[in-house]
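Troubleshooting log. The previous structure file for this entry was overwritten by mistake, so regenerating from the original sequence record. Sequence copied from the archived sheet and checked twice against the printout by T.R.
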Amino acid sequence: MGMLIELLKWCKSLNGDAEREFVDECEYDATHLADEYVQVENACCTCPEGAECAEDDFRGSTLETMEISKGYYRLSDRTAEVLNCEHAQACGSLLSATLGRKELDELYTNLEGSTAPTEWGKGRLRTEITRIRARPHASAIADDQARDATVVVSIATQSYCGKNYEGPLCRACVAGFYRDMVSKTCEDCSGSSASTMPLVFGGVFLFIVLVVVAVSCGGAIQRSYKKREDLITRMRDQGTMLIITYQIIGGLGSVFKFSGGGEYPQPFQDIIGSLDMLNLNVFQILHLECSVESNHYDRLRWSTLIPVGIVSAVSAFRGIQVACWGASWLGDGGAFDGLGVKGALILIFFILPMVSTMICSSFACTEFNDGLDSYKFMTADLSIECERTVDGDTIVNPTYIEAVHFATVMIFVYPVGVPLGFGVLLWSHRESIASRTSRQGKGMGTISFLFRNFAPWAWYMPVVDMIRRICLTSLLLFFGHFLGKVYMILLALVLGIFFAVSLRELRPFWDSSSDTLSYIASYEVVLAALALLLTLLPDGIDAIDLEIVGWVLATSNLALIVTVVTSQAASRGYLVGSRRKPAGSKNTGAVAPELSGGSGGGGGGSGG
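Regenerated output below.
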């Protein structure tokens, strides 16, 4: 009785205030077509969006025979809940195969080799094949009777998914396939494209390592570096500001989609997708799912514990050196000095948004109904079941509880602990940072990547920038869970404007070119949030307008690159009317901007 009531509630929600018609079959009449109805128990309901409900020219379909259109999904043939797929290509139409008697016999004989993930699915498959084989026309299923055969196929897979996809909402890739970072489609692990992203990432990483080694070993390369150190440092810091900006924009889009929203308008979405490598998610970059079977909880543990282990190991090793040589703990030659410690801290700095987002996405669950029972799966990974309700009893998955407890602990390690830890390091060196007369300062090489792009008085600004990055990505997940995607993106818009205006007024950067770049970068984030908000208009704006929005975003982001190039050209005296800034014109005063008259702008990040 309970299930019947729920089905009738669903029927009422589709029909609005219209009176439900209780009949034995949804039959054709003079005013309605058969494909407008689906029979749910003893009620004739309006066919849901994403389904085709004509049994034939005279009758509407039942739940079992209701066909799901391409790009839509339902958990089983017992439920009337039809959902829109994230990626249309992942969810295939059921009218895609025609099976004859021989194919039916083979499918029944080789049942254990089917893709049915549960015993319930296999049992339903046996029953359905037996029913179809008993029909007079089962020995020769014609094209116009293909529905019976495709029902068998859909029950066998229990998914309504297209080729290479599986699981609820067809969000997961089958074994031997990986999720492409740009197209978001499932690609063959043995294909030629599988090595493209790892090779690009490996090449960039190897190049950085070789440059660092070459500069550190002395000789002509080191002398050339020293000669151009200020220019190289400025370019490196501004490059880091670009990386941070695209991390925020990409993270904002991911968080919005995670909360039930859409994507950025094209072609901007493709541009951001191609830059997804900047988030340093090695599982996606290296396609580790091709070699290691894992779920969200596994990836969460690896992503959080490995960096902590690296930092702990290099700090312990440096601590042993300190103990042996008797150096001070925080001064020159201390435990936080050295290339290994600096590399570990830079790693934590760059992966902070990605890891924090992964942590904060571990709590939300998405509910599905299969027609009899309800299921909740972790939204971040629908292969992890949160809980299920069977006959009124709720059963909680212990793996999900364990993941939630682990993520709760990691909140205090990453979104809270990392900014706090960096803040302690900067506070302990605040006087040295404030009194420095160069970007790097003396005796602070390990942590100089944090503050060298900021004015001497702004020793705390790297922590503020970390908070900005977290607020505009992972922290929004909590607000999206409680407030919904509309208020979440409005909050992102407000936060983006707040940080842009605040940084413009503070003017905390070392030189005016960084101020200009950060000002543009801050409002690029605001424009990105505004574009996502436009996708939520009730009736939308027509596709060509959204495409124009996408092109505007893509074009405006070129301003970031142009700003970097022109600022470097101006500093070298290559532009007409420009000349190099004298060394004494740098913002070296250890006072606040309202006293020192610092440069204008805001909204960037520290150098890497």
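The longest strand covers residues 385-390. Archived copy saved in two places this time.
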